């Protein structure tokens, strides 16, 4: 009987320690769902600046949540890397500069806008395969966390429209899990 009591007591302490770790101490990871839409186009303020827009849910794997300092997209095409470093997201219907976004376990669903920094050279969307990698700088971490990678293809027609400062909206097809692009005029709301 005494051995059983000791085993139960030790088990209770271990379970309590694990529960404390998971709920109070463990920081977890910041995660991102696959975006339902991705947009290539331009922001017109006051001159056209290359822009990437996506809609996604950010969430934390811990109860404590995480705080994002900044986010950015690295776009890779034909072995060229380019960073879209100016980040904004929609908060209660208005676009705000991204900084200090708290992401809890329930998550934050939002439209995220990424524009080339104003002091950087212009970017030209060319036809071909693209790899977009979404990164976040998280409070308390030195290195950026890669949240997601997306593969897209710009056709000749897409590239021609983008050269005229129009846009291409990629929608995720649920049956094939592939993004399919469609031409869009100069965006009003994207």
Architecture overview:
By secondary structure, the chain is of the alpha+beta class. It has helices spanning 2-25, 156-163, and strands spanning 30-32, 37-44, 48-60, 66-77, 80-84, 86-91, 94-97, 101-103, 108-115, 128-138, 145-154, 167-173, 178-184. The chain has a single domain, classed as Immunoglobulin-like (Sandwich). It has two helices and 13 strands; from the N terminus they run αβββββββββββαββ. Strand 10 (128-138) and strand 11 form a beta hairpin. The longest helix has 24 residues, at 2-25.
Q: What is the structure about, briefly put?
A:
With 190 residues, the chain is an alpha+beta fold. It is built from two helices and 13 strands, in the order αβββββββββββαββ. Helices cover 17% and strands 51% of the residues.
Any chance you could write out the topology, listing elements then pairs?
Blueprint: H1 2-25, E1 30-32, E2 37-44, E3 48-60, E4 66-77, E5 80-84, E6 86-91, E7 94-97, E8 101-103, E9 108-115, E10 128-138, E11 145-154, H2 156-163, E12 167-173, E13 178-184
Antiparallel strand pairs: 1-3, 2-3, 2-12, 3-9, 4-5, 4-8, 4-10, 6-7, 6-9, 10-11, 12-13
Mind telling me the CATH class? Mainly Beta
Question: Rounded to an integer, what's the Rg over CA atoms?
Answer: 21 Å
Biggest sheet features: 8 strands, antiparallel
Percentage of residues in strands: over 45%
Q: Indicate the CATH topology.
A: Immunoglobulin-like
What CATH architecture label applies? Sandwich
In total, how many domains does the architecture comprise? 1
What is the mean predicted local confidence, pLDDT? Answer: 85
- Measured between the Cα atoms of the first and last residue, the distance is 69 Å
- β-strand number: 13
Shape designation: elongated
Helix and strand run: HEEEEEEEEEEEHEE
Query: Which percent bin holds the helix content?
Result: 10-25%
Determine the structural class based on helices, strands and strand pairing.
alpha+beta
- Our count of helices gives 2
Sequence stretches where pLDDT stays below 50 over 5 or more residues? none
